[in-house]
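User: hey, got a sec? need 2-C-methyl-D-erythritol 2,4-cyclodiphosphate synthase folded
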Amino acid sequence: MRIGCGFDVHRFVPHRPLILGGVTIPHDLGLEGHSDADVLLHALADALLGAAALGDIGGHFPPGDPRYKDADSLCLLQEVYRMVKRAGYRLGNADTVIIAERPKLAPFIPQMRERIAKALEVPIDSISIKATTTEGLGFTGREEGIAAQASVLLLDSDAMPAV
Ligand SMILES: Nc1ccn([C@@H]2O[C@H](COP(=O)(O)O)[C@@H](O)[C@H]2O)c(=O)n1
Ligand SMILES: C[C@@]1(CO)OP(=O)(O)OP(=O)(O)OC[C@H]1O
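Assistant: Yep! Here you go:
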């Protein structure tokens, strides 16, 4: 068994879509990034890589590389999970939190969990997503951007499921 953690932040800007967990969320601002700036998926990808001691997403998908311009982070997450599986692990479970003052994310969380579980081919109860504000405090509270954190547990791929 191996544990990993991931953290990411992206800044709000106008004229960009807001994409979180592979879901486009109606909002007046989006997140700035070289890729689609899906801050949740970036934190999750880093947690997966960290658990397998495989570095971080910036190392595998360098910011500025034209191949990743506006990249779909769900595809990057799938690529990361392929690396993790090649290293001999499979996902036990992931727990994540999105830190955002606005918009209200709770209505979109079931769809995000579904998208991620489908992309990774894991049961939906392996993927947890939560949302919190920072009660108006700090850069998230001032709505300058969104942060996300993720923790994952990897199991050895040859281990039997617990009964
Ligand atoms: N962007 C957000 C932030 C929070 N939520 C939901 O609201 C609940 C209360 O948030 P607090 O920061 O006051 O603890 C939280 O449990 C989330 O379910 C949200 O939907 N979108
Ligand atoms: C996936 C990448 C690719 O450019 O996305 P970015 O939008 O640059 O986001 P960031 O979280 O700053 O770094 C990760 C990058 O590897």
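Quick note: The first strand starts at residue 2 and ends at 13. Let me know if you need anything else on 2-C-methyl-D-erythritol 2,4-cyclodiphosphate synthase.
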